[in-house]
Amino acid sequence: MEETSLLRQSMCRAKGGAPGFKVAILGAAGGIGQPLAMLMKMNPLVSVLHLYDVVNTPGVTADLSHMNTSAVVKGFVGQAQLDNALTGMDLVIIPAGVPRKPGMTRDDLFNINAGIVRTLCEGVARCCPNALVTLISNPVNSTVPIAAEVFKKAGTYNPRRLLGVTTLDVVRANTFVAEVLGLDPRDVNVPVVGGHAGVTILPLLSQVKPPSSFTPEEVAYLTDRIQNGGTEVVEAKAGTGSATLSMAYAAAQFADACLRGLRGDAGIVECSYVASQVTELPFFASKVRLGRGGVEEIMPLGPLNEFERSGLEKAKKELAESIHKGVSFIKS
Ligand code: NAD
Ligand code: LMR
Fold it and tell me: Self-association or partners: how does it assemble (predicted)?
């Protein structure tokens, strides 16, 4: 009797019947996509994991499907399979697109990645308009406005359900600040606001937890290292790509927070680049509280010191241009 019941449970799981959320990764065969897919396959909140890419998802899917975790993995390859990959999804994670090479800015990726993000978001609007969408593809400062315009055009836009992933900036900030303070990075929390490129990445070192003070030299060193963490990796990889493993770790952490929010857990707060009224700009990264509806609350920036206020002005100037570029790409 007990054996029959166990068999039924496992058959139910094999059909995707385990409780949990349905998650799609678009760009799942890439440098970020593969380790992120593995981390999501390990997440007990995921019952179904759809892996979509224009290449190589059958192999990645076969490989991951042998892991003895409950998420059921299905692969989809090529644009003809995009709609099947997206139908019924609760969370869509998008790392599709080209990465930087040394000497490039994230904005240099716009011409290729803008079109990729548009096509994928048109699919989301058609097939899972209520899904939470988390965008990793660069330049995030422009791709999030692009996604918003695609959803507006389709009549499906819900600003609470579109989030740009800036978690890697927080992960880096926590690591570098912990090194300076001689602490375990897991015990450090640095809010990073603004956006995800160069001077738009604004760490608020005056608000570090646990409360800490830094010399002007430490502030200059930390701000520069956090703002240029991506470039540090791009240069070290010497033409073979940008951050993939730390990004997959950060994206999996952010996706887990989104899923816990959707489940109704209380007190889930993460930094993310979202539609915002925290500044005069239509999009801005700051701490947001996640819940059943996606972004439930956008936290104010809190008190900034003079160095941070001046950084904020520089960040806003560049962000305004990147947002305008993204919006114009769809409108014109
Ligand atoms: P990658 O080249 O290793 O992988 C990208 C994947 O996207 C490839 O498998 C490719 O086949 C796929 N792809 C291309 N066009 C597609 C389409 N139309 N539909 C679906 N999939 C498509 O690159 P990567 O290192 O994984 O980086 C991906 C993106 O993430 C880049 O734009 C990079 O700049 C960005 N990134 C963002 C952050 C962040 O903090 N937000 C961090 C690191 C990288
Ligand atoms: C990062 O911050 O690592 C990513 O945005 C990739 C890049 O191009 O730097």
Answer: Homodimer.
Is 324 assigned a catalytic role?
Answer: no
* CATH class of segment(s) 17-165: alpha beta
* Interval between CA 33 and ligand 1 midpoint (Å): 7
- Domain 17-165 shares a fold with domain 166-331: no
Going from the Cα of 311 to the center of ligand 1, the distance in angstroms, rounded, reads 29
Complex confidence, ipTM: 0.99
196 touches ligand 1 (CB under 6 Å): yes
Q: Is 174 annotated as a binding residue?
A: no
Q: What is the rounded CA–CA span in Å between residue 9 and residue 2?
A: 11
- With a 6 A CB cut-off, is 170 part of the ligand 2 pocket? no
Whole-angstrom distance, CA of residue 61 vs CA of residue 24: 12
CATH 3.90.110.10 assigned to domain 166-331? The reply is yes
- In what helix (H) or strand (E) does residue 237 lie, and over which residues does it extend? helix 229-237
Report the nearest atom of ligand 2 relative to the CA of 246.
3
Residues found in the chain: 332
Closest ligand 2 atom to the C-alpha of 243? 3
Q: How does pLDDT run along the chain (332 residues), one tens digit per residue?
A: 344 443 444 444 444 444 799 999 999 999 999 999 999 999 999 999 999 999 999 999 999 999 999 999 999 999 999 999 999 999 999 999 999 999 999 999 999 999 999 999 999 999 999 999 999 999 999 999 999 999 999 999 999 999 999 999 999 999 999 999 999 999 999 999 999 999 999 999 999 999 999 999 999 999 999 999 999 999 999 999 999 999 999 999 999 999 999 999 999 999 999 999 999 999 999 999 999 999 999 999 999 999 999 999 999 999 999 999 999 999 98
Ligand nearest to the CA of 96: 1
Is 242 near ligand 2, meaning CB less than 6 Å away? yes
Q: Judging by DSSP bridges, how do beta strands 294-298 and 201-203 pair with one another?
A: unpaired
| Domain ranges, ordered by start, for the chain | 17-165, 166-331
pTM: 0.95
CA distance linking residue 69 with residue 65, whole number of Å: 9
